[in-house]
């Protein structure tokens, strides 16, 4: 086993997501990779006990829209946590840097303002290959790498439980 990556919590009494209401917002940019990440997130939430009827999935165009959507939907009071999922792939212009910075800062602000966990599920990749690997779709077999979507499901449940302590 390597050094990198997420290990299980040793301080939470329970890691059961039963009863938690989780909002998943994903982009439609780079959708094939985003869909794979979202599927792993939802599968992990269900594995952790979140009822599928308590998982709400919403779409936005791109990563830049994620903070606004998280804010608009969290203010309904209907959710214990939000997971914002997107894939930014660097192009030839400065768009990547500006969108990455805006969406990162925006999501942090929305979570702190709402006093609810907002999980950062945006890959910021220098190439398509990097993005594929981080969605578990890399390599010639299309199956190498680690799908980070599962980790985002863990983070959402953990942070929602921590917020209720
Ligand atoms: N949105 C993403 O989620 N991922 C991207 O890689 C991405 N690249 C973009 C590149 C350019 C040149 C532009 C103009 C937009 C890009 N967007 C991307 C869309 C952005 O997040 C947003 O949806 C639009 O700028 C509309 O506000």
UniProtKB/TrEMBL annotation:
<comment type="function">
    <text>Catalyzes the formation of 6,7-dimethyl-8-ribityllumazine by condensation of 5-amino-6-(D-ribitylamino)uracil with 3,4-dihydroxy-2-butanone 4-phosphate. This is the penultimate step in the biosynthesis of riboflavin.</text>
</comment>
<dbReference type="InterPro" id="IPR002180">
    <property type="entry name" value="LS/RS"/>
</dbReference>
<keyword id="KW-0808">Transferase</keyword>
<protein>
    <recommendedName>
        <fullName>6,7-dimethyl-8-ribityllumazine synthase</fullName>
        <ecNumber>2.5.1.78</ecNumber>
    </recommendedName>
</protein>
<dbReference type="GO" id="GO:0000906">
    <property type="term" value="F:6,7-dimethyl-8-ribityllumazine synthase activity"/>
</dbReference>
<comment type="similarity">
    <text>Belongs to the DMRL synthase family.</text>
</comment>
<dbReference type="InterPro" id="IPR034964">
    <property type="entry name" value="LS"/>
</dbReference>
<dbReference type="Pfam" id="PF00885">
    <property type="entry name" value="DMRL_synthase"/>
</dbReference>
<dbReference type="GO" id="GO:0009349">
    <property type="term" value="C:riboflavin synthase complex"/>
</dbReference>
<dbReference type="GO" id="GO:0009231">
    <property type="term" value="P:riboflavin biosynthetic process"/>
</dbReference>
<comment type="pathway">
    <text>Cofactor biosynthesis; riboflavin biosynthesis; riboflavin from 2-hydroxy-3-oxobutyl phosphate and 5-amino-6-(D-ribitylamino)uracil: step 1/2.</text>
</comment>
<keyword id="KW-0686">Riboflavin biosynthesis</keyword>
<dbReference type="GO" id="GO:0005758">
    <property type="term" value="C:mitochondrial intermembrane space"/>
</dbReference>
<dbReference type="InterPro" id="IPR036467">
    <property type="entry name" value="LS/RS_sf"/>
</dbReference>
């Amino acid at each position: 086993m390597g050094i990198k990556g997420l290990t299980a919590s040793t301080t939470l009494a329970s890691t059961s997501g039963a009863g938690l209401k989780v909002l998943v917002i994903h982009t439609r940019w780079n959708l094939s990779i985003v869909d794979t990440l979202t599927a792993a997130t939802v599968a992990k939430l269900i594995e952790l006990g979140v009822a599928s009827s308590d998982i709400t999935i919403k779409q936005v165009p791109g990563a830049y829209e994620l903070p606004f959507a998280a804010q608009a939907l969290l203010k309904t009071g209907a959710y214990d946590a939000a997971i914002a999922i997107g894939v930014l792939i660097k192009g030839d212009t400065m768009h990547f840097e500006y969108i990455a910075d805006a969406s990162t800062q925006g999501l942090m602000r929305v979570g702190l303002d709402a006093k609810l966990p907002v999980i950062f599920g945006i890959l910021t990749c220098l190439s398509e290959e990097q993005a594929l690997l981080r969605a578990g779709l890399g390599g010639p077999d299309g199956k190498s790498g680690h799908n980070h979507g599962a980790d985002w499901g863990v983070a959402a449940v953990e942070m929602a439980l921590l917020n209720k302590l």
